[in-house]
Design brief:
By secondary structure, the chain is an all-beta fold. Helices cover 0% and strands 48% of the residues. It has no helices and eleven strands.
Length: 126
Amino acid sequence: QVQLVESGGGLVQAGGSLRLSCAASGRTFNGLTVGWFRQAPGKEREFVALIRRSSGSTYYADSVKGRFTISRDNYKNTVNLQMNSLKPEDTAVYYCAADEYYSAATPLHSSEYDYWGQGTQVTVSS
């Protein structure tokens, strides 16, 4: 069983930055593909970014490409999401998720992930 805990959310002005962190217990992140998703009020949960197991290669949604960076710290067993140039439309609850069972080379759908954190609120004011 893998438990995920997100941290680092908050309120920031447009153009600002935040760094989210996802900590895992029960398994090392090196053996998992980890994704970040977000869900705004009244909208479906959407994919943001992922970092693949072992290789550490990354993939981003077009809406965040060039502004967000996902990374993995194997020593601390965390996956981080550095968010720069934030926009009001980035406001959402952000979730980290882990794919343990190799559902896809690039899992973009929430159903392809096996474990989820509780989420952390990010609010970007205009």
